[in-house]
Amino acid sequence: QVQLVESGGGLVQPGGSLRLSCAASRRIFSINYMRWYRQAPGKQRELVAHITSGGSTNYADSVKGRFTISRDNAKNTVYLQMNSLKPEDTAVYYCNAERVVGTEYLNYWGQGTQVTVSS
Questions:
Q1: Under DSSP, is residue 75 helix (H, G, I), strand (E, B) or coil?
Q2: What is the per-residue pLDDT across 27-40, written as a single tens digit (0 to 9) for each?
Q3: Which residues lie below 8 Å from residue 10, measured CB to CB, with a gap of 6+?
């Protein structure tokens, strides 16, 4: 089991920045993928960014160039740095961990943290 605790959400003005944190109960180098998802009211959950155990990253087109996913293995924490925030970034952001064990895919989720971008 992997427990995930998210923090860093809040209210920010357009053009501002926030950094979300996801603290894991397991050494993150043993987790194949760490991901950030978001879900806006009335919309489906969207994959925002992910990072592999090897450090490779990928981003949704809507956030590319503005958001950065990173990890600190010593702190067992994954971050999402969000810059140049737009009102359309408003959503609940969720941390996700995926472990591949043989042929099994094990997924764990954080509780979510609210990000609101508004003037």
A1: helix
A2: 777 788 999 999 99
A3: 18, 114, 115, 116
